[in-house]
C-alpha cells in the first residue's frame, strides 16, 4: 500500500512539475484527486483495509494528498502570477508615445472675427441686438434720413422684395428699432448679414456688418475716436491707432471714414496699405439729429455716435485674404488655415 501511494505521489509530482499552464494543472488534479482519480480510488478502497491498519494507512493517504495539493497550489499561484504579469505587460501605457491625432474643426473665419468683435465691444459694456435680414423701406432708408428721392440711395444697390420690403443693405436699420424700443442711455452693437447687388474681389452680394450705436447725454465725436482707438488696439495690436477722414452718410453728421495705422508696416508704407501707411476699416459719425428726432429722442438732451464695421473686410485684413470669394467658397484648404 505504502508503495502504491509513493508511486501515485511521484507520478503526481512529476506531472505537476511538467505541466505548463493552469489547464493542464486542472487535468492532473482530475487524474489524481478527481472523482475517478487514482488517489480517490485508494480512499474508496479503505474499506478493504484491515481495521487495525486503517489509522496508519489513512495517515499515509492524507500525507500524500496534502503533499500533492500543496505543490499544486504553489504551481497554481505561480501560473496566476505569471498570467497577471503578462496582462500588465500587454496593457502597459507608454505615456511618451505620440497621441492619436483627432480631426478638429474650427469656426468659419467670419464667425471668428464676428466673435472677436462681439467680445471686445461687450467687454466695453455694449449689449447685442440682432435685427432681421428682411426690412422695410422705412427702417433701412427713410428713418435713416434717406427718403425715396435721396441721392444717397445710390450708394447701396438694393435687392427689393416688393416696393415696401427689401433685404437690408445695412445693419444701421437696427439703430431705429433699438431707439424706438428703448430710452437712452443706449449702447448696443448689432451684428448680422446684409445684402447689396455688388460683386467683385472685395465685395460680395451678401456680407456681414457690425453696427454700433451709443446715445447718451454729452456724447461727441471725441468719444467715438477714443473708443475706436481702444478697439483697433484690441483687434489689430497695441501699436495701432486711428485717423478720421471726412465722409458722408445721411444718418450721421458729421460723418467719418476711419483708417487704422498699417499693422503690417507700422505706417512706413507697404503693399497692404498701398504705400499710404493707413488702411480704411469702417464708417462712422455723430448720429444725425434728424434720426434722433424721428425716434422721439430729445436732441437738446441727448446725442450719439454710430459706426458700421465690415466683418469680412476685417477678416481679410487680419488673415491676408485678397479675395472675398475665398471666404464664401467653403474650400476647407483655405478655411482650416484660420484658427485664431
Ligand atoms: N451703414 C453704413 C454702411 O453700410 C456704415 C455706417 C454705420 C456709417 C453707422 C455710419 C454710421 O456703409
Descriptive overview:
It contains eleven helices and nine strands. The protein starts with a helix and ends in a 5-residue tail after the last helix. Helix 1 packs parallel to helix 4 (54-91), helix 2 runs antiparallel to helix 4 and helix 5 (109-123) packs across helix 10. It is 40% helix and 19% strand. The radius of gyration is 44 Å and the shape is rod-shaped. The mean pLDDT is 92. The chain has a seven-stranded mixed beta sheet with strand order 1-4-5-9-8-7-6, with helices on both faces. The chain folds into two domains: 2-91; 109-335, Bira Bifunctional Protein, Domain 2 (BirA Bifunctional Protein, domain 2). With 340 residues, it is an alpha+beta fold. The structure holds phenylalanine. Residues 170, 172, 211, 249, 252, 283-285, 306-308 line the site of phenylalanine (PHE).
Write the layout of secondary structure elements.
Blueprint: H1 2-18, H2 22-33, H3 38-44, H4 54-91, H5 109-123, E1 127-128, E2 134-136, H6 137-140, E3 165-167, H7 173-181, E4 186-195, E5 206-216, H8 221-236, E6 242-249, E7 252-261, E8 278-287, H9 289-294, E9 303-310, H10 311-319, H11 332-335
Parallel strand pairs: 1-4
Antiparallel strand pairs: 2-3, 4-5, 5-9, 6-7, 7-8, 8-9
Helix pairs in contact: 1-2, 1-4, 2-4, 5-10
Bound molecules: phenylalanine (PHE).
Phenylalanine binds at residues 170, 172, 211, 249, 252, 283-285, 306-308.
